[in-house]
Amino acid sequence: MRNPLTGWFLFLFLAQNLLAQNRPDFDTKITHPGFQKLYVQTDREIYFLGDTIWLSAYLLNGKTHAPVSNDQNLYVDLIDSSGAILKSGIFPVYKGFGEGNIPIVDSLLTGNIIFRAYTNYLRNFGDDCFFYKSLAIERTKNSFEIDSRTFTTANEGVEPVVRFFPEGGMLLEHTPNVIGVKITGKNGESIHTNGVVLNKDNKTVAHFVTNYKGLGRFDFYPNSGEEYTVVLNAFPKVKVQFWEAEKEGIKLQLYNNSEDLLHVGILSNSKNYYRQKYTLACMNRGEVIFYKKVRPTQNDFSVKIEKNKFGAGINRLLLLNEDLNPVSERLYFNNNIETNTINIELSDSVFSNRSLADFHLVPDKKFLADSARLSIAVVDENSLNAFGESQTLLSQLYLDAELIGRIESPANYFNDDAEISAEQKLDLLMLTHGWSNYIWNKIADLDEEEFVYPVTAGFTIGGYVTNLWNKKRVAESEVILMVQNDSLFSSWETSDAEGRFVFQHINLADSAAVTLQARKSSESENTRVTIEPLKTISAAFNPNKFKQYSERNKIPLELYRQNYYASLAEKAFEPEKDVILIDEVKVSANAPEQEEVKFSQIYSEPDIMIKPTDADFMANTLKDFLFEKAPAFFGNNMPMSLLGGSARNNYIVYLDGILWTNPHNPPLPPISVSSIDRVDIIDTHNPTGVALLGSRGSAGGVFIYTKRGAPDEVREKYLKGVIKQKIKGFSKYREFYSPTYNAENINSERPDHRTTLYWNPSVKINNGEANISFFTSDDNARYKVLVEGITSAGTVCFGEISFEVTPDADMSESLRD
Q1: How far apart are the C-alpha atoms of 147 and 145, rounded to whole Å?
Q2: Co-location of 614 and 724 in the same domain
Q3: Which of 427, 457, 674, 680 can bridge 703 by disulfide, Cβ–Cβ 3.0-4.6 Å?
Q4: Is residue 487 part of a domain?
Q5: pLDDT value for 812
C-alpha cells in the first residue's frame, strides 16, 4: 500500500501560504502543466470484417473541459492481445475536434481489440493518459462456427484476485473501520461473490459481498494482535491474509447520510490525537477549493460540509496535522455535474423498412445561448456492448481521464440500478481507487519545462540541398515546397549553413504529391534536393495493459445471425463479388504503350488555354508564340514584364508543375513550341486562381505543359534541383454513406443491411435545435440514437432514445389511427 506521507511537498508549501489567510474558503490557482483530456466516440463497439469504424474526437482542456484552441495530430492504433499494433491512422484535430474512419479489411483485425488514441503532447503525461476503448471485431460466422465460450459463465475457471482498501488509508485496531473490497479475475474482469473474515479461532468476525462490478464494502473491528483470514464462499480454496492493524492513528471516513451535507468523520483510536490542531482541505482537478481548521474532541469527530461546496466530479479530501503533514486522505465524488441534456424528438417510435426517420435535437433551455458540437450515431443496439455502453464523454472526463487503471464499464456508474444507486456505485469506486491512482497527484510532480514531446500539427518535411557535382551542402539556397492534393499549398524556406531545410505544420491529406525545388544564383541549376524520411510518431504499447483496458465484449447471438444472413443476401445479389471468373486467356506480346503524362494542376479551370497546332511549331520563340495567342492577357506589358523583367516579381511561370526560377534572362524556359502540349494562363481578374499562387503570383501565372518523350530531356536539363515524391499524410477521409429511398428505388433488390443507420461526427447547435433525417434499412431490429458532445464552455451534452424497425410498422400505425 502506498505511504500517504509521500509526494506532498508541493502541496505543503501551498498549504502554508493558504493557512496564512483568515477566511475559511478560498479560490487559489495552482500552476500545473497544461493537462488535456481526450475522448473518441465510435459509432458502436462491435464490428465485423468489412465494416468501418467511424470516429469523432474531442481534445479538451483538462480543468475546464473547453475545446483546446490549437490544432494537433491524433494518433489511433488498433492493438491485439499480444500487444501488436495491427493498424494505425493519423487524423487532424482542429481547435479541439477531429473526425475520421478506419476500414476493417484485414483478417488479422479480429477478436478483442484495444482502440488506443493519443496526441504527441499527451505522451508527456504517460500512457495512462491516453484514450483506450475495447472493441470486438469478428468475421461472419454461421451457428456452428460460433465459439461456445462466448456464452459461458463469467466466473467459470477464473482465479480471483482479492484486494482490500481501508478507508482513509489505514486500518486502526479497536475501531470500527470501513473496508473497501475489489475482486477480479487475473484477466481483470470483475467477479461477483461474497465472503467472510475469520479470526485465528476460525470464527467469523465480518461478512462482505460485492455489490457492483466486483466492488463492495464492509465494517470491520480488528482486535489488538489478532490475525485474520479472508475466505470467498464461491472459491473456498482461496484464502487471503489480512494485514495487521495500526495500534494508534487518525484518519478520514465519510458518512453520506444527508442529501445536502457530507459528514466527514475524523476517526482516531488514541487520546494522543484529541484536541490537536488539524486542517481538512479539499482539492478538485489540482486546485484547492476550500479548507477548514478542526480540533477533534473525541475518537469519532465529524465535520459537516455542504455538498455544493465540492467541485464537480472527483474531490480529494486531505487531513493535515499541525505541521501540515498529510496523515489521511479520501476521494469523494460529487455527482452534481451540470450537463446539457439533448432532448431527441423522433417522428415516431416504430418505423417500417426503408422508411424516412426524422428527429429534432433540442438542448436544455439554459444552454440555448451556448454553441455546441455534437456527434450522433444511430445503431442497432445489439452492436453495443452486451453489458451496456462501456464509455461516454461524461465517464471519460470525470472518471477514466482522472483515475489511473481500469474501470469496468465506467458509463454505467452514472446510472441508477434497482439494487444500487449511481451515488453508491461512485462511492465504491472512490473507496477502492486510492489517491495513488488519482491523475492530478501525478500531474503535480511534472515540470512542463522538462516535457520532451511537443504539440504536433500536420507533418514536418525536411531535407538538405547539395551541389549536383561535388556533393557539398549548399547554404542559403531558396527551397520551394509545393503540395498538391485537393488544392495547392506552397511555401518558401532557406537552407541553413549546413544546407538543411525544414517545413513544419504541413497538412498532407491522404497520399499527397510533394514537389521540392532548390535554387541559388551562385549555383545556377546545379543543385540536388534530398528529402529525409517522414518521421512517424508511434508510442510503444505494454502488452500487460491489454488485460487492464480490455472489456468483456459479449457479441449477442442475434447479431451473429443477422450478420450471417446479411452476408448471404449480399452474395446472392452479387455472386461475383467474392469470386473472380475468367474466360479463356490468350497470351501475346505487344510493345508497351507509353502512358500519357499528366501533371498536377493547382486550379480547376484556366482563364486561357492554348493548344499548339502544326502551324504554331514554326514560331521562332516561345515569346512570339505566347504573345500571338494571348495578346489580350499580355498586351503591351509583355516585353517589360514577362519577357524583359523578373518573372518572380511579375508573372509566375510553371514548367510541368514545377516553378520556373531561372535567375538569368530570358525568364521563360528555352524550349521549342513543338515540345509543348498546352499552355494555361491564370489572369489577374481570377481572385481564386491568383490566391492559389500567393503573393509572388499577384500578376497572374503561366503554366507550360510539355509532351511525352523529348521533353523529359528538357525537364532534366532545365529543372535541376527538383524532386517529386508522394508522401502518406493523414488517413484517407470519406463521408458516411446513407442511402435515400424514393418511389423509384424503394423496391430495389439490392440488400440494405446497415448496422449503423446514421453517423454524423460534427453537428453544430447554435441558439436552437438541429434537424436530422435518415432512412431505415432492411433489418428488423431495435435501434438507439446516441448523441454526445460539448459546449464551447466545456459542458457535456448527451441524449439517447430508442426506436424499432419492423415490417408491421405500417399496419401498427393504421391500427393506432
Answers
A1: 6
A2: yes
A3: 680
A4: yes
A5: 44
DSSP codes of every residue in 269-335:
S-GGGTT--EEEEEEETTEEEEEEEE---SSEEEEEEEGGGSPSEEEEEEEE-TT--EEEEEEEEE-
Average pLDDT of 678-700?
A: 74
The 3-state secondary structure of 209-257, one letter per residue: EEEECCEEEEEECCCCCCCCEEEECCEEEEEEECCCCECCCEEEEEECC
What's the confidence (pLDDT) of residue 647? 36
The answer to whether the CB of 334 falls within 8 A of the CB of 307 is yes
| φ, ψ (nearest 5 deg) of residue 155 | -90, 0
Contact at 8 Å (CB) between 331 and 314? yes
> In the predicted model, what is the mean pLDDT of residues 511-516?
83
Average pLDDT, the chain: 82
- Residue 475 is part of which domain span? 459-531
Higher pLDDT, 513 or 378: 378
> Does residue 627 lie within any of the structural domains?
yes
Q: Which positions ≥6 away from 731 have C-beta within 8 Å? A: 76, 89, 90, 91, 100, 101, 102, 510
* Residue 494: inside a domain: yes
Enter the DSSP assignment of 400.
I
Q: End of a domain among 728, 759, 778? A: 728
Q: How many domains does the chain have?
A: 2
Q: What is the pLDDT of residue 595?
A: 43
Q: Which residues contact 767 (CB under 8 A, 6 or more apart)?
A: 368, 369
Are both 721 and 613 inside the same structural domain?
yes
616 and 521 within one domain: no
Complete DSSP assignment for 502-567:
EEEEE--BSEEEEEEEEEBGGGBT-EEEEEPPPPPP-----THHHHHH----PPPHHHHHHHHHHH
- Write out pLDDT tens, residues 289-305: 999 999 888 877 889 99
Cα–Cα distance measured from residue 731 to residue 459, given in angstroms and rounded to the nearest whole number: 13
Question: Please, is 52 exposed, middle or buried when counting C-beta atoms within 10 Å of its C-beta (0-12, 13-18, 19+)?
Answer: middle
Does 520 share its domain with 617?
A: no
My answer on whether 618 and 720 are in the same domain is yes
Omega before residue 326 within 30° of 0, cis? no
Between 813 and 729, the more confident residue is: 729
Q: Quick one: average pLDDT of 450-461? A: 91
- Cβ-based neighbours of 798, under 8 Å, separated by 6 or more: 339, 340, 341, 342, 392, 393, 394, 787, 788, 789
Q: Do 712 and 623 have their domain in common? A: yes
For residues 548-576, average pLDDT = 82
Which residue, of 509, 531, 553, is where some domain finishes?
531
Domain assignment present for 273: no
**For the chain, how many residues are written?**
817
Predicted local distance difference test score (pLDDT) of residue 726: 82
| pTM: predicted TM-score of the whole model, two decimal places | 0.80
User: Which residue reads 477533534 in cell numbers?
Assistant: 296
621 shares a domain with 523: no
Q: Convert 335-364 to b/e letters by CB count within 10 Å (16 or more is b).
A: beeebbebebeeebebbbbbbebebebbbe
In whole angstroms, what is the distance from residue 483 CA to residue 481 CA?
Answer: 7
Q: Where are the beta strands (DSSP E) in 1-158?
A: 36-42, 46-48, 52-61, 72-79, 85-94, 97-103, 111-118, 131-138
Other Cβ atoms within 10 Å of 737 Cβ, number: 8
Q: What is the CATH number of the domain that holds 718?
A: 2.170.130
pLDDT above 80 (res 550): no
Least confident of 103-117, 136-150, 274-288, 648-662: 648-662
Mean pLDDT over 216-245 rounds to 90
